[in-house]
Design a protein that fits this description.
Strand content: 15-25%
Shape: rod-shaped
Helix content: 40-55%
Order of helices and strands: HHEEEHEEEH
Number of helices: 4
Number of strands: 6
Bound molecules: zinc ion
Strand order of the largest sheet: 1-2-3
Structural class: alpha+beta
Length: 178
């Protein structure tokens, strides 16, 4: 039985039992009572109480089942929220994952594979620079996964993204400008 109808049935039955009890008490008070009638009414009341109990036990089972479902949904919701908040902490571009800092700047690069899979930022080792691309080796994947990021956006310190196409200081001293 569904929850609300079962509850209504239980309450109705118990109200009828209560009304019957009141009537018996009144007829006992008026002393116009016949013993076999009282016994019949008591049996009727016992039947009603039993029906009411059955309906309320259904309600109890239904509530327990609903509570179990609510708990499972709460846990699922929490998992999804954790995943979502992790996902919002970073983005993927230029072959790498980047952590978004509080001021909106990016820190990285981090392993894009690990980020896509777990949304964690895994430490990486900086490798060689070739053709304007820096090789990075993922600490988790080891040498099995190397990703290449344009050197222009690989700041040595977090969010140290060079702005524009300024000439590196080393080259400037080699070729002084006027
Ligand atoms: Zn990785």
């Amino acid at each position: 039985m569904a929850l609300v109808p079962a509850l209504a049935t239980g309450l109705n039955v118990l109200k009828t039992a209560s009304d019957l009890t009141t009537r018996i008490r009144e007829s006992l008070g008026a002393r116009e009572v016949k013993l076999d009638e009282v016994v019949a009414k008591i049996i009727e009341i016992q039947g009603l109480i039993s029906d009411g109990r059955t309906a309320l036990i259904d309600v109890q089972d239904e509530l327990l089942e609903k509570n179990r479902k609510i708990l499972a949904l709460e846990q699922e919701k929490q998992k999804l929220q954790e995943l979502l908040s992790k996902k919002q902490q970073g983005r993927v571009h230029d072959n790498a994952a980047w952590k978004i800092l509080g001021d909106g700047t990016e820190e990285g690069p981090y392993c894009p594979n690990c980020y896509e899979k777990t949304h964690n930022f895994i430490q990486r080792h900086r490798g060689a620079l070739n053709y304007g691309l820096v090789s990075f080796i993922c600490a988790e994947h080891g040498k099995s996964f190397v990703f290449h990021v344009p050197v222009a956006i690989c700041g040595e310190s977090p969010s140290d993204k060079p702005k524009g196409k300024s000439v590196p200081p080393l080259m400037r001293s080699d070729f002084p400008t006027r």
